[in-house]
């Protein structure tokens, strides 16, 4: 009894340390816990009294000035010991290839640095030019507007682009106010628009609103269609989106105009024109400029969808198209690609949707100076700029390309192409060509009119 009791007491700690593992030459799992490499190193140094020294770097690294930082540098590495060593010729060739790669990378870097410096120089030069031009506009031209606007000096300065700080003022003066609209009149039509919006929200469903908006009998009903279009206006800017700082302002200007001109109503494309004006003018001034701008013959023809007048504009455009770009004109003719496919969108939005905003504003600058002629001259400038590309395309690709122009188009390239366009045909200018087309149309109508009854 005592023997077994004692044996049990002796075995108790042994059972806890799992002695069965030792019978097979193993140690228990908890005795084999992994140790950190630093602890192992410290135990080794304490046991042997020696300090651990890392092995010297391999001899194959001695000839390399730096560790390879990319796969390109691996070309200089020697092969592993289990493979045949490189020959002298191969090593020299690899060194030459590597040196060429480094030289090419340095050349690229220097080229990019020069390009960045050039851009900065041009930007600085442009800012200086704008600053000096602004002084001239503010101190000399604007105080003497009527006497100086038509002078050669002012027209040349105008062509170079208006300084942003005076752009809105110059646009307002150039467009004029033939309609004699006052800020008070704007408030009256804005109040009417707000009443209409309120009545629509209370009585109409969205489908009813769209049907009403399409009705010719009540163009004011197109007020509700404005909401759908505002969110599509310069979507990348976000300032016209719902909750943005200019959303309600754009809504107000378009709504007031729809009540002011119910015979025209709201037409897609108007929101882009109003948005550009809002970015450059105060609310009431933007409305006055907007209403007067849309009252010009070309804009009125397009926004009222006057087909006969639109066809006259297209015909006049084709006269100058054939005169300036005969090869591209014949290419378009071979595919029966007519101007309405691409011009309608350009004219409706005055290029503000098709071109980058800063470039569109520069087009607006000269449009305010030269009138409708410049809109069609700009169209020809775009075709001239991309003539070589367009000559290689078929109908579908041309239509797609002109609907969405490249985003990297620059004002220097475009305006140099516009400057090269001659708006003269057989000694006739744009206004004369258009007037002759109108005259031919009227004579044609007379010839086809029924004979008077006896």
Please sum up the structure shown:
By secondary structure, the chain is mainly alpha-helical. The chain is 65% helix and 1% strand.
If you had to describe this structure to a student in words, what would you say it looks like?
This protein has 23 helices and two strands. The protein is mainly alpha-helical and 454 residues long. The chain has three domains: 69-157, no CATH class; 167-201 and 218-295, Helicase, Ruva Protein, domain 3 (Orthogonal Bundle), CATH 1.10.8; 301-440, Cyclin A, domain 1. It has a two-stranded antiparallel sheet. The radius of gyration is 39 Å and the shape is extended. It starts with a helix and ends in a 7-residue tail after the last helix. It comes from Erpornis zantholeuca.
Helix content: 55-70%
Low-confidence stretches: 6-24, 57-67, 205-218
Structural class: mainly alpha
Largest sheet: 2 strands, antiparallel
CATH topology group of the largest domain: Cyclin A, domain 1
Strand order of the largest sheet: 1-2
User: What's the mean pLDDT score?
Assistant: 82
Distance between the termini: 153 Å
Number of helices: 23
Radius of gyration: 39 Å
CATH architecture descriptor text of the largest domain: Orthogonal Bundle
Keyword list:
Helicase, Ruva Protein, domain 3, two-stranded antiparallel sheet, 23 helices, 1% strand, TBC12 protein, small GTPase binding, coiled coil, Rab-GAP_TBC_sf
């Amino acid at each position: 009894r005592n023997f077994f009791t004692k044996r049990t007491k002796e075995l108790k700690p042994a059972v806890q340390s799992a002695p069965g593992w030792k019978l097979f030459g193993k140690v228990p799992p908890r005795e084999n816990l992994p140790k950190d490499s630093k602890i192992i190193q410290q135990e080794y140094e304490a046991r042997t009294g020696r300090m651990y020294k890392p092995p010297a770097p391999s001899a194959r690294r001695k000839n390399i000035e730096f560790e390879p930082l990319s796969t390109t540098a691996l070309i200089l590495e020697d092969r592993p010991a289990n493979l045949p060593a490189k020959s002298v010729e191969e090593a020299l060739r690899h060194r030459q290839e590597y040196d060429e790669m480094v030289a090419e990378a340095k050349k690229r870097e220097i080229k990019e640095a020069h390009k960045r410096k050039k851009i900065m120089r041009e930007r600085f030069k442009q800012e200086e030019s704008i600053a000096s031009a602004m002084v001239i506009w503010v101190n000399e031209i604007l105080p003497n507007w009527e006497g100086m606007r038509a002078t050669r000096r002012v027209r040349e300065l105008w062509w170079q682009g208006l300084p942003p700080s005076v752009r809105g003022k110059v646009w307002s003066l150039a467009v004029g106010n033939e309609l004699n609209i006052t800020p008070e009149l704007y408030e009256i039509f804005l109040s009417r628009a707000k009443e209409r919006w309120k009545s629509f929200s209370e009585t109409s469903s969205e489908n009813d609103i769209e049907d009403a908006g399409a009705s010719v009998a009540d163009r004011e009903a197109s007020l509700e269609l404005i909401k759908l279009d505002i969110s599509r206006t310069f979507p990348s800017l976000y300032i016209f989106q719902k909750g943005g700082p200019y959303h309600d302002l754009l809504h107000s200007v378009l709504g007031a105009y729809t009540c002011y001109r119910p015979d025209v109503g709201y037409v897609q494309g108007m929101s882009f024109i109003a948005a550009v004006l809002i970015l450059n003018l105060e609310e009431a001034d933007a409305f006055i400029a907007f209403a007067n701008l849309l009252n010009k013959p070309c804009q009125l023809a397009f926004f009222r969808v006057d087909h006969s007048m639109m066809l006259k504009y297209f015909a006049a455009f084709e006269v100058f198209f054939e005169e300036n770009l005969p090869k591209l004109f014949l290419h378009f003719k071979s595919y029966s690609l007519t101007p309405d496919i691409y011009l309608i969108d350009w004219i409706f939005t005055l290029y503000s949707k098709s071109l980058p905003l800063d470039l569109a504003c520069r087009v607006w600058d000269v449009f305010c100076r030269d009138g409708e002629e410049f809109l069609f001259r700009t169209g020809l400038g775009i075709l001239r700029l991309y003539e070589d590309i367009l000559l290689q395309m078929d109908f579908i690709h041309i239509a797609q390309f002109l609907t969405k122009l490249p985003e990297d188009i620059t004002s220097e390239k475009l305006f140099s192409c516009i400057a090269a366009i001659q708006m003269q045909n057989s000694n006739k200018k744009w206004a004369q060509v258009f007037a002759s087309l109108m005259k031919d149309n009227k004579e044609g109508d007379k010839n086809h009119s029924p004979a008077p009854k006896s």
